[in-house]
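Why do we bother with a discrete structure alphabet at all? Because it lets us treat a fold like text: something you can write down, compare, and reason about line by line. To make this less abstract, here is a complete entry for Sidoreflexin. Read it the way you would read a sentence in a foreign language you are learning: slowly, and without expecting to understand everything at once.
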Amino acid sequence: MWNLSTSINIKEPRWDQGTFIGRAKHFFTVTDPRNILLSNEQLEKAHRIIQDYRQGVVTPGLTEDELWRAKYIFDSAFHPDTGEKMLVIGRMSAQVPMNMTITGCMMTFYRTTPAVLFWQWINQSFNAIVNYTNRSGDAPITVNQLCTAYVSATTGAVATALGLNALAKHISPLVGRFVPFAAVAAANCINIPLMRQRELKHGIPVTDENDNRLGESTNAAQQAISQVVISRILMASPGMAIPPFLMNTLEKKAFLKRFPWMSAPIQVGLVGFCLVFATPLCCALFPQKSSMALSRLEPELQEKIRASHPGVERVYFNKGL
């Protein structure tokens, strides 16, 4: 019986990550919301297929498509650096259903202070879980650091939302609808660097192109985190920028005046539609395996790498998500 070759490189994604299209295909697969419906049994089966394949053992009758499907199931549920199973709501496949619900509600209930407090707090709690689950590197983060980041980001988001809400009362209602987006953007700028402060302090692992670990770099961590902040803000943009215009028009129509309770489900649906495309496309803006020139690393690390690995001109690292 014909067996699958053991030379397929499943360390790398199936599509060329040097192009935006290749990265987009990769992230459409990674963020597929159907992955959160997979049972533990299916996850363990994918885990077993991938671990065996890495050891050179091919499951009998396995096709190349099945191998790649197993790889993407494996990647959707297990952390790339630590190998541990990730919390369900922290996985990239949970991004669309979770974000569409939270964002839709944030944008429907944005007029009163208790509603702003509640939904910004829910959003930041979810963000904290996602940022912790998708952190780069295998360095553990302490409970203390986790709590500091969470409290700071929530405070930042709520302060931004309430401050802008107060200003928006004096301007057009349409501008008021964009307050949640400004709050989310501000919170991302606070939350992600704080959640990943250990990386900024101690650096993230950098490797050569063959995955040989060369050391830890804080410069690489800064580049990784700033790319993630940009991606996250842009990811939220379509879902938070397009629905306000549509809702502003819809709410003047007779249908929503007769059924005002339909406002939230319509908003959630619109946000969901935007996120299905925005999430993978914004994740694809930067390569997951990011790189930088050796000359941009800290001087002492440059010296160490030049001494131990002469000829290395670029280093690579996982930017996190």
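What the structure line is telling us, in plain words: The chain is about 60% helix and 5% strand. The mean pLDDT is 83.
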